[in-house]
Design a protein that fits this description.
Elements lengths: L3 E4 L2 E4 L4 E7 L7 E8 L6 E6 L6 E3 L7 E6 L4 E6 L8 E9 L10 E2 L3 E6 L1
Length: about 120
């Protein structure tokens, strides 16, 4: 069992930055690929970014490539999402997720956090 708790969301003006953090419980954090997803009102949950178990592999949605950076610290059981040059269309609830072994860009993750709201004003 893995428990995930996101933090760092908030209200920011367009062009600003936020850093989301996800803290994971358990001793097997390094055996999970980690991902960030988001869901805007009335829309389906969508992939944002993912990182492999070692942190050596990363994937991004085209809509955030070049603006967001995902990273992880296996010693601290945390995964971060640095979001720069934020746009109003980035407004959503952001979810952290864990998937056994292999990285994925779809929502087939095993564990999910409760989400943190990110609002970008124009």
């Amino acid at each position: 069992q893995v428990q995930l708790v996101e933090s760092g969301g908030g209200l920011v003006q367009a062009g600003g930055s936020l850093r989301l953090s996800c803290a994971a419980s358990g001793r097997t954090f390094s055996t999970y690929a980690m991902g960030w997803f988001r869901q805007a009102p009335g829309k389906e949950r969508e992939f944002v970014a993912a990182v492999s178990r070692s942190g050596g592999g990363t994937y991004y949605a085209d809509s955030v490539k070049g603006r967001f950076t995902i990273s992880r610290d296996n010693a601290k059981n945390t995964v971060l999402l640095q979001m720069n040059s934020l746009k109003p269309e980035d407004t959503a609830v952001y979810y952290c997720a864990a998937r056994r072994l292999l990285i994925s860009t779809v929502t087939d993750y095993d564990y999910w956090g409760q989400g943190t709201q990110v609002t970008v004003s124009s």
